[in-house]
Amino acid sequence: MGVVAFSLTFPATAWGLEGFGPWSLVAVRSVLAAAIAGGCLLWLRVPLPDRRHLAGLAVVGAGVVLGFPLLTTLALETSSTAHAAVVVGLLPLTTALLSALRTGTRPSRTFWAAASAGAAVVIAFTVQQSGGALSRADAYLFGALLVCAAGYTEGGRLARAMPGWQVIGWALVLCLPLTVPAAALALSHEPVEPTAHGVIGLLWVAAGSQFLGLVVWYRGMAAIGVPRASQLQLAQPLLTLVWSVLLLGEHLTPAAPLAAAAVLVCIAVTQRART
Which residues form the EamA domain (predicted)? Predict the structure, then answer.
């Protein structure tokens, strides 16, 4: 469920950029997501997180609330969604590596071989799909890769101590002192021309990508572990490319079914391998 929600992020961001500037889109989506999360926390009377969890929540906020949305949105101003999917192709392997370093887990060689093979398939396919050339947005994309992997790793660790929805909920709320002024400043300096696509895109990246998707994602990570869960995300770039065809009119090559089959095999191996 989390991967499906995330796979719509890039197409929805492209739609959102039709009506909002990049800084406005990122700041407003975070404020809207925080409003949803804060409402849930208040309604259920959830106590404040322990002080020992604040550093981890700060990493989640910096990675998945602020860093990844901002860097990918800036990249999508000049990059296609197909090319941006290269980031997600590397994200599962990077998340597994950071998780191993952070938590001390030692997945088997079979796991690493399948994870590397899956990343290689996705990267080769998405680079070929985007014409085989690197864009000027790659610095943003690789930065987004690193901060998001850190946020996933820390969030997956915290989700073992508190429900996954509270992890992203508190991270969003804790970012409000930054996102509210940023939204006001961005909206006053960037042109806003709301269109149907722009509003739908904004609402999805706020409610779907920024909150609901991460709720189920962190819950899944807590249930099966960060390394194994991260490899399910190998399917995300291929799903994103499907959405880019259906929603944005981009075109896929005949290699898509072959790439999809290879990725599914790699995912199956990682799920059965010892972690």
Answer: 2-122, 138-269
